[in-house]
Amino acid sequence: MQRVWFFLYRYIISPIIHFAVIIFANFDSKMKNGLKERKNLFKKLEDFTKDLTDNKKIILFHCVSMGELLQAKPLAKKIKERFPDVKTVVSFISPSGYDNLKSSSGFDFKTYLSIDRYRSAKKFFSLLKPSLWIIVKHDIWPAHLKAASENNIPIILIDANLPETTKRIRPVISSFFKSFYRYINLVMPVSKNDAERFLKVYPYKEKIIPTGDTRYDQVFASSQIAKEKEIKYLSFYKDKEVFIAGSVWKEDSQHIIPALPELLGENDGLYVIMVPHEPSKSQLSYLEEELNKLKLNYNKYTELKDFPSERILIIDSVGILASIYKYSYITYVGGSFTTGVHNVMEPAIFKNPVLFGPKHNNSFEALEMIKRGGAFPINNKDDIYSLVSNFVKEPQKREKSGKIAASVVIENLGATDKIMNHLETYFL
User: Fold this and answer.
1) Which stretches of the chain drop beneath a pLDDT of 70?
2) How far apart, in whole angstroms, are the C-alpha atoms of residue 419 and residue 231?
3) What DSSP character marks residue 79?
4) How far apart are CA 397 and CA 374, in angstroms?
5) Among 195, 344, 357, 425, who pairs with 336 as Cys (CB 3.0-4.6 Å)?
6) Which percentage of the chain shows pLDDT scores above 70?
7) Does 2-213+413-426 carry CATH code 3.40.50.20?
8) Is 34 helix (H, G, I), strand (E, B) or coil?
9) What φ, ψ does residue 382 adopt, rounded to 5°?
10) 17 Cβ partners below 8 Å, 6+ apart?
11) What's 220-410's CATH class?
12) How far apart are CA 149 and CA 70, in angstroms?
């Protein structure tokens, strides 16, 4: 059956996917940019590897985007600490990961993963010659799995998850994935429940080792750096009652902004910081228009010349959200009225009660925080008003919920060390 699936994938499924990407790239600037960058992919690999000695070890991390990169970072850092001569390379599918990775990230080289055609995958690995391929979370590309295996490159899957709702474990579909998961040498799921589900597509119990999620380690490490880092003009918010709405979409703002007049009117010491998921022209224009409709004055971060003069601040730049959560008193995390809630751990580690919308089942930690009383789902502007107002009026209740939220992160630290121990045992 494996040969049948590979034949179908190589000659039918993969070409269809490739053709669809080319078509949709005409309507999606990110996808178009990703295809453009791939035109010189092999030349860049050649330039990177030409000066390396034949015995130089390269460890390849693969991440879909920024979220998976954050999971990879603590492990890549640990590898560099223990094996400073090893070269770490990270590949992406999404431009949002590739474009935003800075040269100071700790990785030696970044690249797009080649298009998942068998010949391209073979060339990719023949040029890079990694000693180990670490895939983060669940981004499985069949042609690359087969090509890596044929080149005797060990493959491990870290921070692996299979949600209860996954289609990968359904009949027929599971047969397809089982044909390609077999190339993986070791699977390290984030939980025992995920480990059980993996048995349906990866029936090698001895090769499934739950180790937890490295995101907790990354969030904790980042929070320690953020505590020492001052963001220009924002030290103004230190020790103040600040409500941060982080990584918000239009769908989140539709519930947050209407609650602000009453919240600000009743709580003289309350400040609001709004951070759009992407500070695009359309996102920023929408926030400004809605605030203007309600006659709410605001500052924009990039226009500040001194401390904010208004009680509402719009962050119209990227890369500082995780660092400004330290100023927050109460936090709303966006995405939860669209596809699913974004990172709730970043504010939680600073002992913030966390609010978010109804779509939060994608986040284990969000569910755990709700269960314990550290996070609170909302459905409309009335919920926003009620929760924020109550936390401002009852600081002891806010403090208690914030500590609970932080404990969910603290209790799950250590995945990086567990994974590292297995890497040393199996491959390094």
Assistant:
1) 103-105, 426-428
2) 34
3) H
4) 10
5) 357
6) 99
7) no
8) helix
9) -65, -40
10) 116
11) alpha beta
12) 26
Contacts of 153 (CB under 8 A, 6+ apart): 125, 130, 131, 132, 133
CA distance 137 to 233: 37
208 near 405, Cβ under 8 Å? no
DSSP labels for 146-187? HHHHHTT--EEEEEE---TT-STTSTTHHHHHHHHHTT-SEE
284-319 pLDDT, tens digit each: 999 999 999 999 999 999 999 999 999 999 999 888
The tokens of 220 are what?
Answer: 């904790």
Per-residue model confidence (pLDDT) at position 62 = 96
Contact between residue 169 and residue 197 where contact means Cβ atoms under 8 Å apart: yes
Q: How far apart are CA 96 and CA 24, in angstroms?
A: 17
Q: Please provide the DSSP assignment of 264-296 as one string.
A: HHH-TTEEEEEEESS--HHHHHHHHHHHHHTT-
What is the structure's pLDDT at 103? Answer: 64
Specify the pTM: 0.85
Of residues 398, 400, 405, 274, the one with CA closest to residue 345: 405
- Tokens standing for residue 72: 């990879």
Provide the pLDDT for residue 257. Answer: 97
Fold match between 2-213+413-426 and 220-410?
Answer: yes
Contact 177, 168 (CB under 8 A): yes
351: left (phi over 0), alpha (psi -120 to 50) or beta: left
Decide if 219 contacts 343 (C-beta within 8 A). Answer: yes
pLDDT value for 181: 94
Ordered by start, the domain boundaries in the chain are: 2-213+413-426, 220-410
Cα–Cα distance measured from residue 323 to residue 302, given in angstroms and rounded to the nearest whole number: 16
Predicted confidence at residue 217, as pLDDT, reads 94
- Residue labelled with tokens 């314990």: 372
Position 328: which residue type? S
229-243 core/surface letters (b: 16 or more CB in 10 A; e: else): eeeeebeebeeebbb
Tens of pLDDT along 72-94?
999 999 999 998 999 999 999 88
Q: What pLDDT shows up at residue 240? A: 94
According to the model, what pLDDT value does residue 173 have? 87
What is the model's pLDDT at position 104? 57
Q: Check the CA dihedral 57-58-61-62 and report its sign.
A: negative
Question: Under 8 Å CB-to-CB from 146, ≥6 apart: which residues?
Answer: 6, 118, 121, 180, 183
**What six digits make up the tokens of 117?**
């055609």
